[in-house]
């Protein structure tokens, strides 16, 4: 059965990357081949891992695998305030941008679809937006006794749950439980707001993150794949 999709232009990403980008969503009204005739520089689509017929159709139309993604959830029950975790301030944006650019070097925003520095720039902007309360609602940070940044987590409230945007620990602070403290702080942030679950997505290749979430009581809810296709490629 031919795949049908809907087209959703991504205005913010298009402006940020300087590349007209659109996302396709499955089960729309347009046949895939017709949708691909629309002018754009880059197509993106996220497909549940069990939609094999859709994956086959995408591959037949020149889409390439960008990355796999797992979505996990933790039920928020009793939580505690975590020591050394506080709300990030605008004066800390420069340090947070540098940290995010350093940590998130592997992502789906990579060559051959994006410039070499695209991932670093994207996540640096994401964490700045979180501090300012745009897109994500808040950014929490972990610091050592001298006040030096160790890690961060960005959070947003959505549909009765809290969604983790970014969770990162600087290389020099890894192996000291900082990631788990930040995750627990995120759950506490959700409890205060009477939210039911803490949700987080991560790359299937990021085994360190997967182990952290599962060790913290998360359950795996779904897996999916991101596929990309350049708009000027022949149909």
TrEMBL record:
PROSITE patterns in UniProt? GNAT
* Swiss-Prot/TrEMBL GO biological process terms: enterobacterial common antigen biosynthetic process
Q: Name one GO molecular function term.
A: N-acetyltransferase activity
InterPro entries, per this entry? AcTrfase_WecD (IPR012752), Acyl_CoA_acyltransferase (IPR016181), Bact_Acetyltransf (IPR050832), GNAT_dom (IPR000182)
Provide the alphabetized UniProt keywords. Acyltransferase, Transferase
Domain (N-acetyltransferase) ranges: 83-235
Q: Which residues bind acetyl-CoA?
A: 206
Reaction catalysed by this enzyme: dTDP-4-amino-4,6-dideoxy-alpha-D-galactose + acetyl-CoA = dTDP-4-acetamido-4,6-dideoxy-alpha-D-galactose + CoA + H(+)
Is the Ribosomal protein keyword given for this protein? no
| Domain of life according to the entry | Bacteria
Q: Does the keyword Transmembrane helix apply?
A: no
Q: List the pathway annotation.
A: Bacterial outer membrane biogenesis; enterobacterial common antigen biosynthesis
Catalytic residues? Answer: 213
Query: What's the Enzyme Commission number for this chain?
Result: 2.3.1.210
Q: Which family is this sequence assigned to?
A: Belongs to the WecD family.
Function in brief: Catalyzes the acetylation of dTDP-fucosamine (dTDP-4-amino-4,6-dideoxy-D-galactose) to dTDP-Fuc4NAc, which is utilized in the biosynthesis of the enterobacterial common antigen (ECA).
Its quaternary structure?
Homodimer.
Q: Name the chain's protein.
A: dTDP-fucosamine acetyltransferase
From which source organism is this entry? Answer: Pantoea latae
């Amino acid at each position: 059965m031919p795949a049908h999709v809907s087209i959703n232009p991504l205005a913010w990403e298009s402006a940020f990357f300087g590349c007209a980008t659109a996302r396709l969503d499955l089960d729309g009204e347009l046949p895939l081949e017709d949708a691909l005739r629309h002018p754009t520089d880059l197509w993106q689509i996220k497909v549940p891992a069990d939609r094999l017929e859709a994956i086959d159709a995408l591959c037949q139309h020149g889409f390439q695998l960008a990355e796999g993604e797992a979505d996990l959830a933790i039920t928020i029950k009793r939580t505690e305030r975590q020591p050394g975790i506080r709300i990030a301030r605008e004066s800390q944006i420069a340090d947070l941008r540098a940290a995010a650019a350093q940590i998130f070097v592997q992502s789906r925003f990579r060559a051959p679809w994006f410039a070499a520095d695209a991932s670093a720039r994207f996540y640096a902007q994401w964490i700045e937006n979180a501090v300012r309360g745009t897109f994500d609602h808040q950014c929490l940070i972990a610091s050592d006794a001298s006040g030096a940044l160790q890690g961060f987590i960005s959070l947003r409230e959505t549909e009765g749950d809290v969604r983790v945007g970014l969770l990162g620990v600087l290389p020099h602070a890894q192996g000291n439980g900082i990631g788990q403290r930040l995750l627990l702080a995120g759950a506490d942030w959700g409890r205060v707001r009477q939210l039911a679950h803490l949700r987080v997505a991560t790359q299937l290749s990021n085994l360190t993150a997967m182990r952290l979430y599962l060790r913290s009581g998360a359950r795996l809810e779904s897996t999916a794949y991101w596929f990309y296709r350049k708009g000027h490629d022949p149909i």
